[in-house]
Amino acid sequence: MSSSASERASRLRAEIGEHDHRYYVLDAPLISDAEYDRLFRELQAIEAEHPELVCSDSPTQRVGAAPLTGFATVAHRTPMLSLNNAFSDDEVAAFDRRVREGLAAEGEVSYVAEPKFDGLAVSLSYEQGVLLRGATRGDGSTGEDVTANLRTLRSIPLHLQGSGWPALLEVRGEVLMWRSDFERMNEQQRQKGEKEFVNPRNAAAGSLRQLDPRITATRPLRFVAYGVGAVAAGVLPATHWALLERLAAWGFAVAAERRRVSGLAALLACQREIGSRRATLPYDIDGVVYKVDELAAQERLGFVSRAPRFALAHKFAAAEALTEVLDIVLQVGRTGALTPVARLAPVFVGGVTVTNATLHNEDEVRRKDVRVGDTVVVRRAGDVIPEIVRVLPEKRPPTATAFVMAASCPVCGSQVVRQQDEAVARCSGGLYCPAQRRQALLHFASRRAMDIEGLGERLVEQLVEHDVVRTPADLYRLGLLALLNLERMADKSAGNLLAAIERSKQTTLARFIYALGIRNVGEATARDLARHFGSLDRLLAADETQLLQVPDVGPIVAQSIRQFLGEPHNREVIEQLRAAGVAWSEGEAVAPAASAPAVAGRSFVLTGTLPSLTRDAARQMLEAAGGKVSAAVSKKTDFVVAGADAGSKLQRAQELGVPIIDEARMLALLGGVEADR
Ligand code: IVH
């Protein structure tokens, strides 16, 4: 065995451990995913060549275990207790009184307040700083051995960092799924046609109790430490507050929302304050836990039956309530999506008065069978948008009326369309619909469309608000005076903007088509259309069969184009734009997009959720630069672009040794930077 391989391997392990901690615990990564993958693969390669170097706390061994047929049971060294709950201020006052009496305290008692995480409790046993076992709470005395699954969580250190840890240490805490991860995961479940989870808690529980740790490894679980169980051969700090800090130093995430306060009034204020920020926290919480700060005092107070006397969970008010559906109206979103929204008789739920609840889409209304006049259960979950949980059919009046999706847009009157395979109905008004104006104008002016420099979000906002600009054609009628009336608009910038608008008139047919913002028509399709038809008039006259002859135009795209161009308002705007002098040389040979040498002729596969682009947008960008995008990974694939929660394609790429890059790297390639492969 070469000692340099062994040294390199342990250096890599330490480095990867550090990056896991920075990424999953501190939320402050230092390196890109690609660099991380490179370190990881280097370690894998060394370990493959020198199997004797593999050790159980190597990051490569997080997912190592074979599927189980069942979980073994583990007896907890010290029981995992529950907490007494309080729902009112009076109950908290009674708790504080009992604590002061129990401690014969003269003045106010010092407490730590921290969120009550809505996940599931686990206990992690470390011996000599190495993670040996992880178990669920079970009945409090015995739980299930889920070590292999817990090892896949990158926020759980395989060995403790720093120093000063007891030789035996049980770390107690909660396994959670962040709401954003939960939503992304459910989206993927939906796409795969698999079962969705009801909430992050259930998703976390279901993910942790998988018999195959490889499945758990794909689930975005996190661990937060809130205390310790058994401790041997070591000393702990004197207070819970300091203990949390110690846990953080050993490599665990601990609640960022923790407060050290004295006395009842401060406790109640903490619960209100943390409660008010509940919706903005990345994870669900269902109350605030108060703990006597001094550990010696905790010990003196002891336990009654299965709950400590030194701690209390102050729960938030129930976030569900009953109310009546007064009406179901349609809201038009910025992309034309029509969302049915229930107008409700005002009801106080989860700390606010709710008068509206989203019903998401037509199918959802039908599935829940919500009708005007119904009595419903509304829930204000962790997020701010309240929703209808269910209808109470026994309370339905005979006059209750079912919802019907409108045939025309309530804002602009354009036709409402719902495409095959889409849950969402949309207004086809596009450029014309005021609800969609802002979005449409921004897209129209964007760099790859008409490229009107200086026409950004703030300006568009004002132009629409003051009703100066209704359609893109109005942009070409703007005068200096109208602009000078806007906020923060001086002579010079107004002049610059007018010049930019003037310059944009000379464009290409492809840009013009793209700028119209037809659904499903991205840059590449716009270019194909321009190349195929050669003139706008020929495109305007094309029927579905003719559209289908354009390379890469399928029935859905053809239908979008027909719908858009079939709308008289859109035709009008197009005519006004031409009349305003927007022009291109007809029949021009459409110049291909600036082809990026690092991309042109190479083949890509996209997988997972990219941080900023949709996969479709990424595909269009790659294709526009001359790349080829395929669905499956093969030996001929040049790059796999992987985002969060990438699955089998990523694995296949690793098996075949195909270079794996992240979105940032892909953008760099598009920008002309060559990849080292
Ligand atoms: S301390 C002896 N702290 O609440 C005290 N528990 O009812 C033991 N929980 O299953 C628990 N957040 O999973 C503690 N900040 C927190 C907590 C917390 C959530 C859960 C815990 C346990 C349940 C107890």
Automatic annotation (TrEMBL):
Q: Which GO terms describe its cellular component?
A: cytosol
EC number(s) per UniProt? 6.5.1.2
Entry-linked InterPro entries: BRCT_dom (IPR001357), BRCT_dom_sf (IPR036420), DisA/LigA_HHH (IPR041663), DNA_ligase (IPR001679), DNA_ligase_AS (IPR018239), DNA_ligase_CS (IPR033136), DNAligase_adenylation (IPR013839), DNAligase_N (IPR013840)
Where is Zn(2+) bound in this sequence?
C409, C412, C433
Which keywords label this protein?
DNA damage, DNA repair, DNA replication, Ligase, Magnesium, Manganese, Metal-binding, NAD, Zinc
Name any one GO molecular function: DNA binding
Name of this protein = DNA ligase
Q: Which organism is it from?
A: Candidatus Accumulibacter adjunctus
Query: What lineage is on file?
Result: Bacteria, Pseudomonadati, Pseudomonadota, Betaproteobacteria, Candidatus Accumulibacter
